[in-house]
Amino acid sequence: MSHPPEPETADSSAIESTNQLLRELAATAMYNAKKLAWLHEQLSKTPAPALADLLQFRGHALAQAGYTDAAIRDLSALVSEPSRATADNLNKLAQQLVYRACENDIQDAIRITSSVAADETATAQQKFFALDLRAQAQLVAGQHDDAMASAEQALVLHDDDRTKAVHSLAAERRAPTGLSRHTRAFSSAIQPLGAVSACVDNHPSGLAQEILLRSEPTR
Amino acid sequence: MSGMPEGWDFPSVPPATSRRQVLERLGDLLPIMEAVQFRPGRDIVIATGSLIEGFGNDSSDIDLFIVDWTDNATKRDAQVFGGGRTRWVDVEYLDRKFIQELAARVQADTPLNSWHEGPSVSPSELDLYHRLTNGIVVNKPLVDISDWPTFRRAPLARKLTLGYYALARSRWLDAVGALTSRQYGQAWYVGREALERALDGYAAILGETNPSPKWLGAKLARLSQDPFDFRRLFWRVCCPPRLDEQAARRLLEGVDSVMYQVSAALVDGRFRERSLPVASASRLEMLPDGRVVEIDVSSVGRVVSCEDTTLSFSLPAMLSSWA
What is the pTM of this model? Predict the structure, then answer.
């Protein structure tokens, strides 16, 4: 009588990458919790908030908590008010559109981030975030040259490992030669955000999904 | 307005020219933007309609165009909803290709000698063009709108005036025929219609291009210039010399009485005896879903929701209660 084979022990690199993923998840959850508490505090400090104030707090909080569809609904309505079409609100909306990636979301995100990048009143940090998001969106859209160009523009403003990862992913998809060490490291750092919608999973680009699901505890 | 008959009043607020004025007239638009699922990366929202144009009143709808200014516009159906607001909201979705083609068609030259060939642009399209000419963009477009057409009023006025001229001339010929046949009542009635259409053309030339016949009096009252003082002719022919609330109410009650019988005949094939005095009676409205709604005469001009259970009931129940 044969015995079932003993389960094979995972190799050390797989264990380490899983450990790293769990650390990233914990860090992201803590960051989101802090950000939500901060938003709550800011709302309580706002005297007689207008409807637009409520939409703004709600939209950012929903985005932070991973409720992407609801965040897009609130942030979209919010930025219809010209005084609320700020770089921060638009970037947050574009980020959520990239996460959702349904129907026209990616093209919309490219247009929105392009408007922020061209906004003379936006700060360098806001422009960096817009360009980084645009690079992600263009990567998902298969516009690899554009994605590389956007990532390069972003990197001029701020040196960021994740933006470099987007750049290398775009370069690899433009001329596939296998995943680089840098890309593998990036891929291992991804984490699933709570409310990433099912359509992301169905997106034809597996690498795009990695980009979409990456953590961003400092953004 | 100097010279206007006593008791007469027309809406005469100037058209809105800024987003601030739009918000003053329409209120906060954010709940509407949520309800219509505004898409910042592609949509241009234009406030339009009588409130924007200065012709509105307490019961006027909020009219919005939402224009998808991308190459792959998705078809969306028009929406009309109350959404718990005091005004109903009428939303119409348009796209870039339609807007550009509409502008090109209206702005294409129309030879003067073509007036008898009929309109080259449909009345509903002229109305749409007029609304776009008067409309105010309420959001900050995030799409490239450098190819947004300029909605010039002059070509619209020309096309409208040619159409009005054709109508006026036709009725004028009828009126002259009646006059020469000593049918003075017919001549007056048809001549009055000819006058109204001719004045529509006159107002259009002077910049008042709203094509709806209901605003003729308001358009004339608001003219910044009236070189021939034709509005006095309108007041003299079309307006009684004195007007008070009771007179206006009596007219509406008369209309209501006729409409009641017409609607009764449509609903159950016969006219009806009205047991209630006209002033407190009602008329019937037939809804697209098959229900019939009774509307009290006092609510004339006010939108009544079919969801209001006090005012809506099924046709069989109505028939049995009135049998």
Answer: 0.77
